[in-house]
Amino acid sequence: MNIFRFAGDMTHLFSVLVLLLKIHTIKSCAGVSLKTQELYALVFATRYLDIFTDYISLYNTVMKLIYLGSSFSIVWYMRRHKLVRRSYDKEQDTFRHLFLILPCLLLALVLNEKFTFMEVMWTFSLYLEAVAILPQLVLLQRTRNIDNLTGQYVLLLGAYRAFYVLNWIYRYFTEVHYVHWITWMSGLVQTLLYADFFYYYFHSWKNNEKLQLPA
């Protein structure tokens, strides 16, 4: 564990808490993409298949349980909660996220470090996480009406990935034989997808304007 990894975990955790705060207290999921949340639920379900077989540490297990529980809870709220689901903008959230799943699965079957079920599922989760934010970004571009909590949620997700990139760089120079090119490339793609959002977020903050993404 290093400071970059810890910062990444905490910003990821805060992003989940911000979204749950919005959904639970305001009873609204306006501006939130169900498609992205379903993709994240699939990411964690396939990445943490080893949760009951490979024990690393209490911290690691607790974080896995938090991500699994929170991701499926958010999907349940948006699909089933009688108040929250009314605010879901189904007409705008039309990104066909299923077309992201199949290419990522095929890529994981072809490009992986070890051709075993667990390894392929882990690799699949990396590829899918890299593009899971796309439906959310498209929804924000379409609605062009981003409330503070939704904006902070996406910002924290981007910061989480940026900290993880720094973590990989740090580990590359401090650990012997630390080479995980699949993880690095997936993380880099994911970070680049946030670049446009970061630009407009800080531009609106600097000018004290409401955050809007160009159509």
Automatic annotation (TrEMBL):
GO terms for cellular component: endoplasmic reticulum membrane. It is found in: Endoplasmic reticulum membrane. GO terms for molecular function: ER retention sequence binding. PROSITE patterns: ER_LUMEN_RECEPTOR_1 (PS00951), ER_LUMEN_RECEPTOR_2 (PS00952). Keywords: Endoplasmic reticulum, ER-Golgi transport, Membrane, Protein transport, Receptor, Signal, Transmembrane, Transmembrane helix, Transport. It is a multi-pass membrane protein. It holds the Pfam family ER_lumen_recept. This is ER lumen protein-retaining receptor. It comes from Aquilegia coerulea (Rocky mountain columbine).
